[in-house]
Write a structure and sequence with these properties.
Layout (H helix, E strand, L loop, with lengths): L2 E9 L2 E10 L2 E2 L2 E2 L5 E10 L2 E4 L2 E4 L3
Antiparallel strand pairs: 1-2, 2-5, 3-4, 5-6, 6-7
Length: 61
């Protein structure tokens, strides 16, 4: 299983992650490295739909 932990800040049309720790730290005996930070940009299409980088999500009821 892979994962990371850290903090995030949400703003108008983005979520910015500051990554403090991630795992696994090695794969098949070779070291792996974390991103230090990442920003995800999105836009609201309508009240039930949000579009992000390469994906679109709709709320279902």
């Amino acid at each position: 299983m892979a994962g990371d932990e850290g903090t995030y800040k949400a703003g108008e049309g983005y979520i910015h992650y500051d990554i403090k720790n991630c795992w696994p730290t090695e794969y098949h005996g070779k070291p792996m490295h974390c991103l230090k930070s990442e920003t995800f940009y999105f836009q609201w299409v309508d009240a039930n739909t949000v579009r992000g980088e390469g994906s679109e999500c709709r709320r279902s009821r």
